[in-house]
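Troubleshooting log. The previous structure file for this entry was overwritten by mistake, so regenerating from the original sequence record. Sequence copied from the archived sheet and checked twice against the printout by T.R.
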Amino acid sequence: MRALHTGKGPVKADDRVCVGTNTKHRRGESLVDRFNSEVGRRIREIRRFLDISVEDMCQDLEVSERQLYRIERGECSVSVYGLMRFHERHGVDLNYLLTGVMMGNDIITRIVDSTLKEKAFIICLLADAYNKEVTLRCKKREEENRGEN
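Regenerated output below.
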């Protein structure tokens, strides 16, 4: 990915600006890099959970095995066409793939219409979100208790 200099101050090796935004990120990670990393992680997570073979996944996304591993590591992006094929074949929520958030209005419909494996995956996502929320609340209480003492 090309770095784009903002024109302010000297160019630093670890400064990048994502083209089309005004947001600069340090440590060499652009918004695009972060996006690719998160989408790749979710693709790998779903592929493993739904027990989709590497060969089938490569066919779904129309990529080579090497390219799939690069996508899953966040080293490159997956095509929108590939994501659409993956969605059509496996019913995976595109909003979840791209943002990590399931569409609120569609959750009940998705659970009712999903396969047993997909239901288990959704339950795991909900349990993970619940655990994160509980952990955050506990940390907040601990900080409040420290402040009172």
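Residues 5 and 26 are 13 Å apart (CA to CA). Archived copy saved in two places this time.
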